[in-house]
Input
Amino acid sequence: MNIILLGPPGAGKGTQSARLVERHGMRQLSTGDMLRAAVKAQTPVGIKAKAVMDRGELVSDEIVSELIDAELAAMPASTGAIFDGYPRTAAQAEMLDMLLAKHGRKLDRVIELAVDEDALVDRITGRFTCARCGAGYHDRYKQPKAAGVCDECGSTEFKRRPDDNEETVRTRMQEYRAKTAPILPGYEARGIVAQVDGMASIDDVAEAIDDLLA
Ligand code: ADP
Ligand code: ADP
Ligand code: ZN
Output
C-alpha cells in the first residue's frame, strides 16, 4: 500500500501517520520531518530551507522530491509508504508519479483529512513533541498520560516548532489553499480519493482510516 495523507497544517497527518506505522508496519515519509532533520544537521539543504520554513513558505519542488527519492530508494519494496506533507504542489504530484514508477510502486489511495480552518490555528499553536522520540502531543487535545513525561519513551523534554506560531500558520494555510488544494481534483479524476472527517477525535479518525485501508 502507498497512500498520501492530504490536509492543511494541523489536520492530523503526522498524528495519523504514527498510528499507521504502529499498526500496519508502514513507513512514514514526512518531508517536513526530513527538512527539520536537515536544518538541525546544518546540511546544505537545511541551510537553504530554514528561512523559507520559518516564513511558512514552500521549499523548492526539487529539494523535497530528492528527499523522497532517497527515502524510497532505501526502503524494502514490500514496506508500504505513507506520504505525509508531500506532494504539496502540482509539480510535486507529477514528480511523485515518476518516483513511484521508478521504484516499482503505485499510488493506492489519497486520504483527505477534512478540517475546519478555524480549528487549525488552535491545533498548531498547542502542538508540542517529545524532544527524544518525536511523539506528538497537544496542550489540550493530547496531553501525556503522566504530566511532563513522554508516553512512548519516558523523556521529560519536549519541544515546539519555531514555525508553529499564529502568523506563520496563516501563511502556511494560504500556501495550502493556493498550491496544495488544487492537486486534489487530479487525484479525484483517478477515483482514488477518500475523505475522512478530520474534526473527529484522534481515535475516531484513526478508525475511519483503518476502515478505508481494510
Ligand atoms: P499535521 O501533521 O497535519 O500538521 P499533527 O498531526 O501534528 O498535524 O496535529 C496537529 C496538532 O493537533 C497536534 O498537537 C495533535 O496532537 C493535534 N491533533 C491531531 N489530530 C487531532 C484531532 N483529531 N483532534 C484534536 N487534536 C488533534
Ligand atoms: P505542517 O504542520 O504544515 O503539515 P510540515 O512539517 O509538513 O508542516 O512542513 C513544515 C514546513 O516544511 C512547511 O511549511 C514548508 O516550509 C516545508 N515543507 C514540508 N514539506 C514540503 C513540501 N512537500 N514542499 C515544500 N515545502 C515543504
Ligand atoms: Zn518520547
The radius of gyration is 17 Å.
